[in-house]
Write a structure and sequence with these properties.
Elements: H1 4-8, E1 12-15, E2 24-27, E3 37-52, E4 58-70, E5 85-93, H2 100-115, E6 117-121, E7 126-130, E8 132-138, H3 141-148, E9 167-168, E10 177-178, H4 193-198, H5 203-214, H6 219-229, H7 253-270, H8 287-300, H9 315-318, H10 324-338, H11 345-361, H12 368-389
Helix pairs in contact: 5-6, 7-10, 10-11, 11-12
Length: 404
């Protein structure tokens, strides 16, 4: 979460030079003028089109969209289409390799806006310096990894918040990386969430490690450091007034919960999660029950106004077509009733805990103090319970007695 109190009480603002000169220090603090603008940058990649290249295999061409959001607007309207500011599209065949080269001119513009642009206030009939600061960047994990210049979700240290270390599964052909929190497949204790939260990545640690990579004596040493830290180098956004690498890149609820956790829970309950055999596990829902739930969802759509949700298909047969909107509605308004008496009591309670977390996260009244105390405790407990309830073959005994 962005620390707005820290921004608004800063004694000075340092603006890096764009051309190698000395940094400029501005008097005053962020948002001392009510007309200062807080900006958010949203980016995501999507497959714009496909082509059959010279080979038989399909080649995907990814396009990355860049959008600015005005955080001075009310949260109920700031993401509406008529209020967002499209910056452009980044066409890239395959994987985006150097997003910094596309962000250079955006950086220059943001530096100019931080210093202020002479503008006319028609309400007060005066000339003033219009200032704008980028304070937050949102996107899925691959997008944020690109813009932070990190290794991302396939790296040994993928998380931009903590120091969790991945473990390669040598039993699989692809030797994919996994990131268990409490225990691994060998029943070896790894971390506690308490320790991960007490030792987070910080703004200073990002800079120190990136500089260490840049100043490495050899290419081999630099590569070793990139793997160890999960970083590639200094991001193009580094040094922008308002950007803090510890706080300005929050995790995206849509991808984290609606497009990840929800489908994964359903896969666990229906015995289709990857190649893991869950036959006989207490949380598994029978095919007959799941088919019945899917049919009831379709039947109920006739009684739900289209204003709330578009027509949802049968989750038992077409669950793979659900988008974030569908998963959100299913989790908050259908699952509590459809799964009551179907899931064992502890698993049903675990589901209700997730619903409570999501309802708080999407509310507009959650304060920073609440996030750092009770809300963080709820999230940590849910992850621990997940490994105990859904991963009973991986979990070891643990305690909730530690304060978060």
């Amino acid at each position: 979460m962005v620390n707005t109190t820290e921004l608004c009480t800063a004694k000075k603002i340092t603006v890096p030079s764009a051309g190698g000169e000395e940094d400029e220090t501005l008097s005053g603090c962020f948002f001392w003028d009510d007309r200062d603008v807080a900006l958010g940058l949203a980016l995501d990649g999507f497959t714009f089109y496909e082509t059959l290249g010279r080979s038989v295999q399909k080649t995907k061409y990814n396009t990355w969209s860049l959008i600015l959001i005005n955080y001075n607007l009310d949260p109920t309207i700031r993401t509406h289409r008529k209020y967002i500011m499209p910056l452009g599209m980044i066409p890239e065949p395959g994987v985006l390799k150097d997003i910094g080269s596309f962000l250079y001119w955006l950086r220059r513009e943001l530096l100019s806006l931080a210093k202020g642009v002479r503008s006319y206030d028609s309400l007060n009939q005066e000339i003033f310096l219009l200032r704008a600061f980028l304070i937050i960047v949102i996107g899925d994990m691959p997008a944020i990894a690109h813009i932070m210049d990190m290794k991302g979700h396939i790296g040994k240290r993928p998380c931009r918040t903590c120091w969790i270390k991945g473990k390669r599964d040598r039993s699989k052909k692809d030797s994919s990386m996994h990131y268990p929190v409490l225990t691994d497949s060998n029943h070896t204790a790894r971390y506690t969430i308490v320790n991960l939260l007490r030792n987070p990545r910080t703004h200073k640690s990002f800079f120190r490690q990136a500089r260490e990579i840049v100043n490495a004596n050899t290419l081999a040493k630099a590569d070793d450091l990139r793997t160890h830290y999960g970083l590639n180098g200094l991001s193009m956004l580094w040094g922008l007034p308002g950007i803090n690498f510890e706080r300005s890149f929050p995790h995206d609820l849509m991808h984290l919960i609606f497009l990840n956790t929800c489908p994964n829970l359903v896969a666990w309950w229906t015995g289709t999660f990857k190649d893991i055999d869950t036959t006989g596990d207490r949380f598994q829902i029978s095919s007959d029950d799941w088919k019945r739930i899917g049919e009831k969802i379709v039947d109920s759509m006739g009684f739900i106004p289209a204003y709330f949700i578009r027509q949802l298909p049968n989750i038992a047969t077409l669950g793979h077509t659900y988008l974030a909107e569908g998963w959100c509605f299913w989790l908050l308004h259908i699952a509590p009733y459809a799964l009551e008496g179907v899931l064992p009591p502890e698993y049903y309670t675990h589901l209700l805990d997730l619903i409570s977390i999501v309802r708080q996260a999407i509310s507009f009244t959650l304060t920073e103090i609440e996030v750092l105390t009770t809300f963080q405790q709820q999230c940590a407990k849910w992850v621990e319970d997940y490994e105990q309830y859904v991963h009973p073959f991986l979990a070891l005994p643990f305690s909730h007695d530690h304060p978060i």
